[in-house]
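Follow-up to my earlier ticket, as requested here are the two runs.
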Amino acid sequence: MAAEFELCPGRRIGGDHPCFLIAEIGQNHQGDLELAKKMIRMVKECGADCAKFQKSELEHKFNKRALERSYTSEHSWGKTYGEHKCHLEFSHDQYKELQRYAKEIGIFFTASGMDEMAVEFLHELDVPFFKVGSGDTNNFPYLEKTAKKGRPMVISSGMQSMETMRRVYQVVKTGNPNFCILQCTSAYPLLPEDVNLRVLKTYQSAFPDIPIGYSGHETGIAISIAAVAMGAKVLERHVTLNKTWKGSDHQASLEPNELAELVRSIRTIEKAMGSPVKQLLPCETACKDKLGKSVVAKVKIPAGTVLTLDMLVVKVAEPHGFPPEEILDLQGKKIKKDIEEDETIMEDSIENYSTRTKC
C-alpha cells in the first residue's frame, strides 16, 4: 500500500483515506475577484476538498519577447500575450483576500506556483501544499527549491516521459518525502484515447511509497471516476460556471452540476470498493435463505445405502441441508435412515457425520 501523509491540516491522503478532490479554478475567473469568490463557494457546495488557482509572477515566468508577442486568439484579453496574462493575474493582496474567503467558508485553498517567485509568494501565504503544474515538472532547479521548503507537493506529469518522471521522483524525494504524482495529459479538451489511465498502474508499481493520482482535462466525469476506481488518491479537475465563456480552459472544465455528480459518484465508488475479503455478507442472507440450494435425494434411498453421485441432485429445498459445494463430500457416506425421493439430505441422516467441513 502506498504511503500516506497529511496534505492539508487534518486531511491525509493515500492508504485507505478518501480521494482528495482538487477543483482547479485556475484562471477561469476571467480576472474578476468576485467571480473567483463565487467559484470558491461553488466548489465548496459541490463537495470538493480544495479550491485551486494559478499564480504567476509574469516577468519570471515569461521572457520579454514572449510577453510582447501578438495574441489574437478569440480567448485573448489583450493585444499581446502579456496584456492577456496580466488581465487574468490576481495581485498578492487579492490572493490574500481569496484565501481569507476560502477559510471563512471552510475549504482548503492553494495555487500552482507557475515560477519560482510565485512559489516564494505562496510559501509566504502559507498554503497547505504546493501544486506543480506539468509545465514545471521537468524544471529540476524549481523542483529542488520547492521541495526543500518542506510543504507537501502534488506534481502533474503532462508532457513528460517515464524517464523524466523517475528523475522527478528522485529529485523531490531527496528533499521532501510528502509528495504525490498525478497522471496527466496536457491537451484541452482531452480525447479518451489519449488519457492512458494504465499509467496509474505504472506509477503505482514504480513509486509504491507515494500516493498516485490523476489530473484530467477530458469532458464528462466517467474517466475521472474510473481513475479513482483504479486507485487515484488525488483527483484534479478544472471547473467553470459556464463552458461557453471566453477562455481556453472552459471547454475542458466541469460545470457545477457535473462537479457535484463527480463528487457523489466518487464517494459511492469508494464505498463500493469495500473489503478484499470474499465472504457471505449479512445483506445476502435473505437471498440465500430464499434461493440458496441444497443437496436432495434424486431417488428414494433406503437406510444402509452408501451414497453415490447419481443418487443426489441440487435444488432449492425446504428445509435447507448440505450446500452444493459439499455434494462431493457425501460420496461414500452411509445413510442411516430411509430418505424419500426429493427429500433434503440432512446431517442427521448420515452415519458418523456429526462434523461437516466448512469452506
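Run two:
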Amino acid sequence: MPPAGPRAALLPPLLLLLLRTALAVPLERGVPKKEDGPATESPVSGPALLSSQDTGLYYHRYLQEVINVLETDGHFREKLQAANAEDIKSGKLSRELDFVSHNVRTKLDELKRQEVSRLRMLLKVKMDAEQQEPNVQVDHLSLLKQFEHLDPQNQHTFEARDLELLIQTATRDLAQYDEAHHEEFKRYEMLKEHERRRYLESLGEEQRKEAERKLEEQQRRHREHPKVNVPGSQAQLKEVWEELDGLDPNRFNPKTFFILHDINSDGVLDEQELEALFTKELEKVYDPKNEEDDMREMEEERLRMREHVMKNVDTNQDRLVTLEEFLASTQRKEFGDTGEGWETVETHPAYTEEELRRFEEELAAREAELNAKAQRLSQETEALGRSQGHLEAQKRELQQAVLHMEQRKQQQQQQEQAAHNAPGPEGQLNFHPDTGAGSKDDTPVPVPADDQKGVDASEKKLPEPPQLDTQNL
C-alpha cells in the first residue's frame, strides 16, 4: 500500500493508462492526431510535469523513467492513441514492445537492471539488520512484494510481462491510496482524543472544569460557520462561478464552467482539478489562524468532497470526469437540490468508541514495550558505567605504578649523579664506575716503573697518612 502523500496530477497520456486497468476514457485526449499538427503544451505537461509530481509509490522513479522512455518511441505512441481498456487488460498494448526501436529497448533494459539492483540492495540492508540485531523483525512477505512491479525471474531485460506487471501494480496501489489516507486520519483523530482525555485526567477538579469549558467554547466557534454547499451541486458551482471566476451567476453555463476549470485542457477534470473547486467551501469552515480549526481535518474534508463528486458524477469510475459525465450530472434532480448542505467531518466521527478502546489498548501495550526496553537499556547503561568505572580505576592504578617507577628511576639517577660529582677525602681518588679509574682532579697518577709489571694499579696499597701527635696538640 502506498504511503499517504502527494499524488500525481495532470499526468501524461501513457501514465494515465498505466494507472488504470479497467477504463473507458477517450485515449486520444491530450494527444494530438497527425492532422492536428503540433500540440500546444500546457504550462506544465509531459515528462517535465511527471518529474515535478509524485505518485507516492515506492517505485515512482522507475515508473516515471519507463513512461518517459516509452513516449519517445513514435510507433508506441501511435498504438497508444488507438488503444482501449481491453487492449490494456489483455496485454495487447504490452506486446507492442516487440516493435519499438532498439534504442528504446536498450534503455528499458538498463532501467530494469538498475531497479533490480536497487531492490537487491534494499533486501541486503534489511537482511543484514536482521542478522546484526536479533531482536529486529523483518517482514519477509513485505520484502518479496517489492518485486511485484517487475518480473524478478528475468532480471536483465524489460519484456511485455514487465509492462503488464507495472500497469497492474500501479493501478492497484493507487486505488488503495484513499483508503490508506482515511485509515491514517482515523488514527490521527483517535490519538488526538486519547491525548485530550489523558490531559484532562491529569488536572485537578477546578482546572479540569476550566479546560473542558475552553474546549467546548472552541468547538462551538468551529461549528459556527456559513452553510457549506454540497460538492458538485449547482449552488456550489455557481459560487465558484461568481466569486472565483468573476462571472454573472445568472448566466451560469455548465459547459463553459467545465472548460474554465479544465486547467490543462485535456478534456477531463482530474482529481486535483476537482479538489481546487472545493477551496471556497473549505474556507467557510477552516481558517489556519484559528486555534480551533484543525488543518488536518480540512484535508480529510477535501478528500471526502472529491470522493462524493467522483461517486455521483464519474459514472465509469475511472477517477476522471469527462465533459459528457459533467453535463449529465447537471441534469439530475440532485444537482439543484440545496437541502441542508454538506455535513462536515465533525458530524461524522472517524471512529467508534470500541475502535478508540482498542487503539488505547494498543498504545498501552506499545508504551509498556517501550518502557521495558528503556529499562533494559538503563540496566545495560549502568552495567557499562560500572565496567567503565572499573577500567578507569585500573587505568589510574597503572598510571600510579608507572609514575612511581619513574620517580624511583629519577631518584636513583640523581643519587648516582651526586655520588659521581661529590669530592672524596683529600688525597683519595674518585673512581668512575664506568672506567674504574680516576683521581681527585681526573689526572693520571704516576706509577713507579718497577711496580707496573703484572700489578693492577687498583690493587696497589697506598701509603698510610701520617699519624697526628694528639698529646702535643
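The only thing I checked on run two: Confidence is low (pLDDT under 50) at residues 1-14, 19-53, 434-441, 451-455. Let me know what else you need.
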